[in-house]
Each structure stands twice: as structure tokens, then as C-alpha cells.
Design brief:
Length: 107
């Protein structure tokens, strides 16, 4: 999935995945449609087979706090939220979420 987000990022003229992750989390806090899509993706998620790659992203403390609070209020983990956000982005195929995130990540 990380590879797919890297490809998405490059296709939208962004350098790396980190600005995309930050934009996704920020949008999750204010966008009810994304909130519902992430909840649905978490509910439908299948644990990835094989070895997982550990990644880290630098987040502002307030953004990290928002992520933790969202995850706790939905009784899930930060990792599950990030995977669901990436899944929603990849499946959006240049729809409304993709447009919002591409624009936000460029700021």
C-alpha cells in the first residue's frame, strides 16, 4: 500500500508520502465523508499478509493528538487509521478526496 501511495503522490507532483499523510489526517478531522469512509475501510480491513514495513511520519503535536483521539474514540489503533486513510485515498481514483488531499499536501 505504501508503494501505491508513493505512486499517487508522485503523480500529483508531491515529494514523498509524509505530506500526504499529514493532509489525510488533517482532512479526517474536518470532513464527515472521509470520516465515514475511514470507518468503513477499517471495518472491512483484512490484515495484510506477509511482513509489514515500519514507517514513521513527522507530525505536529496537535495533528498527532488529533489522530490518537480519533483512533481512541473509534476503538482502533493509529496504524489502522493510517492504513484506512491510505486505502480510501487509493480507491478514490482522482475523486473528491484525491483532489482535496492533493491540494492540501501542496500547501
Amino acid at each position: 500500500m505504501l508503494r501505491q501511495v508513493r505512486v499517487w503522490s508522485a503523480r500529483h507532483g508531491l515529494v514523498g508520502v509524509a505530506p500526504v499523510v499529514r493532509a489525510l489526517i488533517a482532512e479526517l478531522m474536518v470532513n464527515p465523508a472521509l470520516d465515514l469512509a475511514v470507518e468503513d475501510a477499517i471495518a472491512k480491513a483484512v490484515r495484510p499478509a506477509g511482513t509489514l514495513t515500519k514507517t514513521t511520519y513527522d507530525l505536529a503535536p496537535s495533528l498527532y493528538r488529533d489522530l490518537k483521539e480519533w483512533a481512541a474514540s473509534h476503538e482502533t489503533t493509529n496504524v489502522a487509521v493510517l492504513r484506512a486513510l491510505m486505502t480510501v485515498l487509493i480507491k478514490d481514483r482522482n475523486g473528491a478526496i484525491s483532489t482535496l488531499i492533493a491540494s492540501a499536501a501542496q500547501r
